[in-house]
Amino acid sequence: MSFSVEEGEFFGILGPNGAGKTTTLEIIEGLRQADAGTVEVLGMSPWPRNPKLLPRIGVQLQASSFFERLTAREQIRTFASLYGIPAKKADDMLTVVGMEDKAGTPAEKLSGGQAQRLSIACALVHDPDVLFLDEPSASLDPQARRNLWDLLRSLNEAGRTVVLTTHHLDEAEALCDRVAIMDHGKILELGPPATLVRGLDSATHISLATGTLSLPAAREVAGPDASVTDDGVTVTIATRAPAPVLTALADRNLLTGIQVRGATLEDVFLHLTGREYRA
Fold first, then answer.
1. Residue 145: which pLDDT band, with cuts at 50, 70 and 90?
2. DSSP 8-state class, residue 139
3. Predicted TM-score (pTM) of this structure
4. pLDDT tens across 30-44, in order?
5. Is residue 98 within 8 Å of residue 107, measured between CB atoms?
6. CA separation for the pair 92, 115 (Å, rounded)
């Protein structure tokens, strides 16, 4: 694989389990030696371990590990001390990620989502130029995810380069300037999410509650080139010409409560990587 990330860019790496996302990040971060090829981060090679590069990057690993018996405040102050960062700034970072009320809680008693936020705070405490995040929103509830998105946007808008992997495709679509979709260690597509979605020849799905429109009537409205399905809850018309269908539904006064969904990044992802289960 070969790709570059521009300074100040928000870049996402997407792929199913086992695609090579974490391995790729670990090579870029200097945690793993590449079998072949070259890697350059901020003009420097990350391998072998580069003391000049380490203060300029922040890393949040997929699996976080903290010192036993230390509180959240003690954990982040320990991380901060490695970079010569004062304790006050470390405490402020706990507030940034919404962990100030858990500052005195031992790390082993934090929930999964709280531990994830503490891990991100530790990655940010030294104000790095480039931030690497491996599935940062895993274990977070919807509210915490949205708060994390706001935090990452603000960091990126302040000039930091952010590189993340995620299984949440809505997250990548909302945050990333560009994404690389990979599988089996190779990049399948790379570009802005909106561009990848527009490049997918996908039908528009128009959905109504079952019983609102009979199947024969739905097929009449849909036309010969569309498909109609009924799962017992929703009648869905999949068409590449939605305007005539919506006009026909409007003529029947059936627009109330319908849902119209175009292609998303998830559709692109499934088109490229398939739908089979990955352990």
1. confident
2. T
3. 0.84
4. 999 999 999 999 999
5. no
6. 17
